[in-house]
Inverse folding.
């Protein structure tokens, strides 16, 4: 059964279609693997009876004549998406045991396509973090090296797909929370254009940045699942009104003549030599495949971190004000009045990182500081986004490293918030601009830990970007490598 | 520009988060580190640059001003996560004497 567990979504879809395996068999296979790899702590809530019921329903749909590339394929959801049938906690004590009255739009869309949910995945609390060490429910281990973090905030998603205990997982990216963990665990992690996926039912962190995406084995799988997952949703006021499209349409586009922009700012002094070596090798492979490398510059990309740590906390302080212990979530036991109840409930229910960001946000939005911080950050954000537009005049896609180093160890950065923030140096600029971007595995660095190659494309060019990734994956086998024990 | 202990107490109050003096001292040091990093963006001239509040710009989409049903009207489901409730209402400490 190991082969089946290592199969891609595309392969599983074909096996289901051919009647060689049932959705129920697949559900049981992956539920068993989840149980066998409990030590990873990738899952926060697993309810086998609900999963099996969904699998039986998918099998019944097929028996009734329905067809679909995803019908009966299992997946798991990051615990940022609310679900009716599993608890939705955002990995926070604040929401322990919370049962949503509804399913998130992304959850709904994938269920409609017949995907079978395996459960909810661990992450950094409210998706704030780069190592998953901010979860209130414990660390997630990196399947490649259990002394290393799986990245964050989508650390449960990355570990689950890397360990092949889920063939695909949803994830969310605000400043790098899909790409960084994908790079750290040697899988394919993709963030579409901001506004393509609905934010309805995605527990909000920073509303102008939060973007749902996927952790998959391959770019092809991502394209297949995007087809069902992305689309306009009137319930999300920033959802982009565009017709649905086929994200697989660019997979077979040849690389001949493709111009790959290489930003010199992404290869500065902070980049570890092992990561640089693997990324440069990947770029050479692209040249061999017919692409042309073009030197480009994103002069203010390094200001992405300062800008992000104004904009994201500002939006977070507003979004997380809903957690007041009144309608849902944790309520303190002893208090004197309403304000005291809220203050104590928030002090007890929220972890250190969400609190830190709420305080930063409250400060930059407060009277007398708004112009100097929030408005200034929004202006520099515009400059960074405009520089991408200048760059895309010279190239079709942009490529570079995802992270400055391979996965770091537990505790290495946990005590120093600033050091942790800098882990997102290369991912934050794309998030601020809102362009699609992804990480694909391109080798291994120090201690055998995986390295990711980042690809970025202009707005709404996911299909092109996924094609560029797919062509590399046809020529290399990094994405087929699995950690020992998987 | 460095924050003071009073600033931390003030914003913690604004954000409705109880904070002990020891936590405030630790938070103060961290916030000053973070704001030291944030200051770097001040070096870029931004005169005449339009602030970017949203990646795709544009205005908020408007819909018809009518009641829209986005989810089922299910009072029981919506109340089941309440820390305290009674008779279909959320209970809070007395706010009007």
């Amino acid at each position: 059964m190991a082969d089946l567990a290592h199969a891609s979504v595309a392969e599983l879809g074909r096996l289901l279609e051919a009647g060689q395996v049932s959705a129920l068999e697949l559900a049981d296979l992956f539920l068993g693997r989840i149980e066998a790899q409990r030590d990873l702590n990738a899952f926060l809530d697993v309810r086998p009876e609900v999963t099996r019921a969904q699998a039986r329903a998918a099998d019944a749909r097929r028996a009734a004549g329905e067809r679909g590339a995803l019908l009966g394929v299992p997946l798991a959801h990051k615990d940022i998406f609310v679900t009716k049938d599993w608890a939705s906690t955002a990995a926070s004590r604040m929401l322990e045991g919370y049962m949503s009255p509804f399913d998130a739009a992304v959850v709904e869309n994938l269920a409609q396509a017949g995907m079978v949910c395996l459960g909810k995945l661990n992450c950094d609390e409210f998706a704030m973090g780069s190592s998953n060490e901010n979860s209130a429910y414990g660390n997630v281990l990196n399947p490649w090296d259990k002394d290393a973090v799986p990245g964050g905030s989508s650390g449960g998603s990355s570990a689950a797909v890397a360990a092949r205990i889920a063939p695909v997982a949803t994830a969310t990216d605000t400043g790098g929370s899909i790409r960084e963990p994908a790079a750290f665990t040697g899988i394919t992690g993709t963030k579409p254009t901001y506004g393509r996926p609905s934010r309805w039912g995605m527990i909000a962190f920073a509303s102008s940045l939060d973007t749902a995406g996927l952790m998959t084995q391959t770019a092809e799988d991502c394209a297949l699942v995007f087809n069902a997952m992305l689309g306009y949703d009137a319930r999300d006021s920033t959802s982009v009104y565009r017709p649905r499209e086929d994200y697989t349409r660019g997979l077979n586009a040849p690389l001949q003549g493709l111009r790959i922009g290489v930003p010199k700012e992404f290869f500065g002094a902070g980049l570890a030599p092992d990561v640089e070596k693997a990324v440069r090798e990947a770029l050479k492979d692209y040249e061999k495949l017919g692409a042309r490398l073009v030197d480009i510059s994103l002069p203010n990309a390094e200001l992405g971190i300062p800008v992000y740590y104004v904009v994201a906390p500002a939006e977070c302080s507003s979004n997380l004000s809903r957690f007041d212990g009144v309608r849902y979530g944790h309520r303190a036991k002893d208090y004197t009045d309403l304000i005291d109840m809220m203050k104590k409930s928030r002090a007890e229910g929220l972890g250190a990182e969400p609190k830190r960001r709420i305080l930063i946000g409250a400060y930059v939005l407060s009277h007398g500081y708004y112009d100097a911080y929030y408005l200034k950050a929004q202006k520099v954000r515009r400059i960074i986004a405009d520089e991408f537009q200048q760059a895309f005049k010279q190239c079709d896609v942009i490529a570079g490293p995802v992270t400055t180093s391979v996965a770091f160890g537990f505790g290495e950065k946990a005590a120093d918030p600033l050091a942790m923030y800098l882990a997102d140096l290369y991912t934050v600029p794309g998030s601020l601009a809102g362009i699609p971007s992804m990480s694909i595995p391109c080798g291994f660095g120090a201690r055998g830990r995986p390295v990711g190659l980042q690809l970025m494309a202009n707005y709404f060019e996911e299909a092109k970007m996924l094609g560029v990734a797919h062509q590399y994956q046809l020529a290399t086998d990094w994405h087929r490598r699995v950690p020992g024990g998987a | 520009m460095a924050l003071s202990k009073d600033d931390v107490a003030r914003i913690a109050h604004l954000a409705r988060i109880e904070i002990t003096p020891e936590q405030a001292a630790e938070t103060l040091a961290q916030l000053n580190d973070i704001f030291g990093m944030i200051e770097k963006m001040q070096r870029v001239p931004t005169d005449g640059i339009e602030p970017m509040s949203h990646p795709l710009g544009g205005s908020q989409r408007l819909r018809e001003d009518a009641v829209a049903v986005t989810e089922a009207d299910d009072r029981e489901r919506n109340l089941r996560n309440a820390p305290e409730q009674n008779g279909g209402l959320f209970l809070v400490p007395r706010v009007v004497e």
